[in-house]
Design goal:
The complex is a heterodimer of chains A (222) and B (256). Chain A is mainly alpha-helical and 222 residues long. With 256 residues, chain B is α/β, with parallel strands linked by helices. In chain B, the strands form 4 sheets. In chain B, strands 7, 8, 9, 10, 11 and 12 form a 6-stranded mixed beta sheet that branches. Chain B has a 3-stranded parallel beta sheet with strand order 4-1-5. In chain B, helix 2 packs across helix 8 and helix 2 runs antiparallel to helix 9. The longest helix of chain B is centred in the first third of the chain and has 21 residues. Chain B is globular. Classes of the chains: A mainly alpha (222), B alpha/beta (256). Chains A and B meet through helix 1, helix 2, helix 3, helix 4 and helix 5 of A and helix 1, strand 2, helix 3 and helix 7 of B.
Chain lengths: 222, 256
């Protein structure tokens, strides 16, 4: 029933597009982590002025679909600002993924920070730690442990969200699959194969996540 | 506020430099960037990573005459118009049907393909024999295509359940998930013939379609349009356009 020979022949073709998919997701994840940390710190410490902006940012990027944001960056903004035409599809996709996912990630980082009991802050300050020592030595190590599973969730989601880049003319894993399926009409085979590829990648990441969690949990082990 | 904006800008610049280092996109003046979906058999599709089809052959033949280097850019069909408007491609070779709205917005070449809109159903479905039988039925059309509008102009439009798809409309009709799809007759015939999906044409085409290539309606765009248009004329006169058509369709779809 399944045309396995076709799937086998398609595998190396599709794998050629995997690096681009992973590159986009990885670059976007790194930027999103930085941005999300800044947003979370602004929200937790309620920096006057910036707090409102952070709220607005998170509200917009969580409140609108990623596809809409990508279209806005790539097709919409260049009509207002001419120089933005030089943005490539890959850049627009990375930028869109970064902004979109940083809004979600900021909230889970904020939750991890505020989840740490206030008495620890008081204790740290009472023995004369500075604010940055408090953050570095007490809050962040614990918050990292709490936030890791949800952040990995977002990274996995982000890998799959790169498939939207084909609407911006970037042929990544999913775009390549769609075009191949259109040529062969073997939809089941093509999409099953790409599903397996995504799945295997995510499974490998989950394995890495488990190792990371064990590492971060070492203080709690008996 | 300033900090956030600066941050966003820096971030964008960083992403730009990181990305452009890895995936440099060249843009030359003599390069004609042609957008297509890569997902419309047999006009534009991919086999083993190679872009093929009627449109690809036509544009390559055009390039040989004009001397332009043809650069194919594939994107989801729904993204193509945005790419043309924002100047990321110069034209679209994807069987773009001329409509009054589109002609007001873009500079078109003369038509290079003539066709009809065709209703296609699952094999053995005798309840639909044309567009008039679509009342109360679900009909799939491609998002951004003009078949939706053609259907809405039908007298029984209010009773048709039109569903817009990003791709795979043939598959969903073959699966019985929707009752019919509307596509141009030429590629519908081709899909049924070549791909062994359980589909059949339902009755005669219900509207004449003229397909041409849109360019931006500015000075540079019109100049490109004229250059490509002249090349198409030449291909038509030399018989090469007909040959390309017969290669893919066993028939000449470039004549009325």
């Amino acid at each position: 029933m399944l045309n396995l020979e076709y799937m086998w022949g398609l595998l190396p073709v599709l794998l050629r597009y995997l690096p681009l998919t992973l590159q986009m997701a990885t670059i976007a994840m790194l930027f999103a982590l930085v941005l999300a940390c800044l947003l979370a710190v602004v929200r937790v410490s309620r920096v006057p002025g910036l707090n409102g902006l952070a709220l607005l940012f998170i509200s917009f990027f969580r409140g609108t679909p990623l596809l809409v944001q990508l279209f806005l960056f790539y097709y919409g903004l260049p009509q207002l600002i001419d120089s933005l035409i030089s943005i490539t599809g890959v850049t627009a996709a990375v930028l869109g993924l970064t902004l979109h996912f940083s809004a979600y990630m900021a909230e889970s980082i904020r939750a991890a920070i505020v989840g740490i009991d206030r008495s620890q802050t008081e204790a740290a300050l009472s023995i004369g730690m500075t604010q940055s020592q408090l953050m570095r030595r007490i809050i962040l190590p614990q918050a990292t442990r709490v936030a890791t599973p949800t952040l990995m969730n977002y990274f996995i989601d982000m890998i799959k969200a790169t498939s939207l880049a084909f609407t911006l003319g970037v042929t990544e894993l999913m775009g390549a699959t769609q075009k191949e399926a259109a040529g062969s009409f073997l939809y089941l085979e093509a999409f099953l194969l790409v599903a397996i590829i995504y799945w295997v990648i995510v499974e490998m990441l989950s394995w890495g996540q488990r190792r990371l969690e064990t590492y971060l949990n070492r203080a709690y082990q008996r | 506020m300033l900090l956030t904006r600066k941050l966003t800008l820096t971030l964008g610049a960083l992403a730009l430099s990181a990305a452009s280092g890895v995936f440099a996109a060249a843009a030359h003046a003599e390069t004609l960037r042609v957008g297509m979906s890569g997902g419309y058999f047999p006009f534009t599709f991919v086999e083993q990573d190679e872009l093929k089809g009627f449109e690809v052959d036509v544009m390559n033949a055009v390039g040989e005459i004009t001397g332009d280097e043809i650069e194919f850019v594939t994107a989801s069909f729904s993204g193509l118009a945005g790419m043309l408007e924002s100047g990321r491609i110069d034209t679209i070779a994807n069987q773009i049907t001329m409509t009054p709205e589109r002609e007001a917005k873009y500079a078109f070449t003369e038509p290079y393909v003539y066709d009809g809109a065709q209703v296609v159903v699952r094999e053995g479905n005798d309840s639909i024999e044309g567009v008039e039988d679509l009342s109360g039925k679900s009909v799939a059309v491609n998002l951004g295509s003009n078949y939706e509008q053609l259907l809405r102009e039908q007298p029984n439009a209010d009773e048709i359940d039109i569903r817009t798809y990003e791709s795979n409309i043939e598959q969903d009709v073959a699966l019985g998930r929707v009752d019919a799809f509307v596509m141009d007759r030429v590629s519908a015939t081709q899909v049924i013939k070549e791909k062994g999906l359980p589909l059949e044409l339902a009755g005669q085409p219900f509207s004449t379609i003229e397909n041409a290539m849109p360019f931006r309606d500015d000075e540079a765009g019109r100049a490109q349009r004229d250059r490509v248009g002249d090349a198409l004329d030449e291909l038509r006169e030399s018989g090469e356009l007909r040959e390309i058509s017969e290669k893919w369709f066993d028939t000449d779809i470039t004549q009325l």
